[in-house]
Structures are given as structure tokens and as C-alpha cells.
Amino acid sequence: MKHVKAIAAMSLNRVIGNGxxxxxxxxxxxxxxxxxxxxxxxxxxxxxxxxxxxPLPGRETIVLTRGGWSxxxxxxxxxxxxxxxxxxxxxxxxxxxxxxxxxxxxALGDRTAFIAGGADIYRQALPYCSELLLTLVRREVxxxxxxxxxxxxxxxxxxxxxxxxxxxxxxxRLRIAGGSPART
Length: 184
Fold this sequence. Notes:
22% helix, Dihydrofolate Reductase, subunit A, eight-stranded mixed sheet, 184 residues
């Protein structure tokens, strides 16, 4: 789906979290993340949302969770199928209220849904993403959450941003014979 992309940051040893926290502090990467996702939709798991503590300003938040969890300021979906149905539905119904122009094109309208973690959400959603925007932190860190293998699904396209501490890399969905996206 062209309007579903993954956005993540991982260390050289694939760590994305430790104790439900990001194990580095890179203000320049936070700034890039904010600029990239502003006005868009962020999709994350319940634990990731709870680690942030609130919806991020200027972005719609969708929390993917299996349980009966709810929060008054976010949209909750219970599985990836419900998320994909929501993103393409011209009538989002109970999930959210959108302008009539968005309703005509589906709930996303011209926006992008960025898959933003955690590890299990990435594992489930990467096969449906058209792109992966990956911050590669140039160090190894200890952690308990790891970014799943993605290399069989995506090809490297370009380095978007480079600093001494990290690079931001853009990957595009691999195509298989016949032009269809690769699936796992």
C-alpha cells in the first residue's frame, strides 16, 4: 500500500528499545522524525504509545492492540486487517471523523500512515509497507526489543540524511516478477 510506510530507528545490532525506552538520545533524529510525520498518521502498539505517554502533537495516532484497551485521544484498532480496512475505507465510521474530501478518498486521504513500533508491530506490518525510513544509529547498544529482518522485503534506495551519530536510509518495497510487491 503506497500510503503505509514504516519509520524506525535501530542500532548496528538491531536494537530499537530497552525497558520500553529508546536507548539513545539524538535530538537531530527526533527533529527529522517530527518533520517527516507532521500532519500524517502514526500507527503504534499499545506499549509504544504508553512509553510516549500521549499522542504526539500535529499527528493522528492509531494504537494497534489486541486487548480491550482504550484512550480518549487516539483511534484503537485490534488487528492489522482492521487497520488496512480503516486506511482504505471511504466511511471510517466509528473510528474517527474526517473531512468530506478525506472520506471520498478513504480515511487516509492524501496522508501517509507511518508504522512507528514496537518490534511486534513492525514484524506484522512490514510486508504491507511500500517504504521503510530507517535511522541507523552508528553504535551497538544493549536492549530487549529488536527490529525484525527486513532485507528480504526492501531494497536500499538512498541515504536521506547523514550525521556522525546516525544515517537516515530510505528503502523501497522489492518487486517480484510481474510487478507485484514481495510478500513473506
